[in-house]
Amino acid sequence: MVLEAGCGLRETRRWSGAVRAVLHEGTRLPTRHDPSAAVLGIAALTVVLSTSPPVARAADTAVTPHRALYQMQLAGTRTGSSVTGVNGRMVFEWADACEGWTIEQRFQLTFQYAEGNRVEMVTNYTTWETKDGRSYRFNVRRLMNGQLDEEVRGDASVDAAGQGRVRYLRPEAREEALPVGAVFPTAHTLDLLRAARANERFVAHVVFDGSDNEGPTDVSAAIGAGGRPRVTLQGPGGALLAGTVYPVRMAFFPVGSGNPEPQYEMTLWLLENGVAEQILIDYGDFRVQGTLRELEALPAPRC
Fold it and tell me: Which of 36, 218, 263, 295 is deepest in the core (most CB within 10 A)?
């Protein structure tokens, strides 16, 4: 799953984007409170890239293209939080497009605040990424209370030496360099799966997902020991909830910030076939949980 692993869910990554809607006069949500930023991912800490493991190629890790529906709800708050309720749904699709992977995340969330305000957020996040991890296209459209809040569109690429550039087409045309060694969301998720199977316990990357116009994010991931799936579903999709599941806890930081406190954290219970059976996004003052409700395999393409 790519939620800014891979969020997205990101998110994102990442559960990845900033919510900039006015809740009432003079009040705004802090940046990156949109769970689609957690893409993650699926998609860290100040990273010494030279010590990071190489990113897995598509051939190294078998994933199952799938569509999943998650119920999103408030999992808890801390003292002083202005958020009193979160509910909604997320549809996540990871599809095989022959030469690349496509990811589509659709969020419909309602935030309730202590002051009595309600904010309805609808986010559509679509990406295409080549299987060699070299080229990437992204398109994000976010509505707040039915009004267009943000639209981000562009493409990015990296060369064999790890040098990369991103070209934004919206909200305004511009280009900028990516940090050396930056990876895209699907490559990041595949590397998490590779590391989990190899019993590696820590993976760190700079991840660019295009979920907002703020650029890449440092993502550090701690991977727990594999176990048996905890979720069961009726119907054909339930057969995908098999094999080993790994708890993956990711922390998201601005690139090179040096701040020991992450902007947010996300935990995925990630199956070895790429399906996330549960999601937990921690923004510090409140947490949002995604519970898997529906799951189906997507057909293989005719390449």
Answer: 36
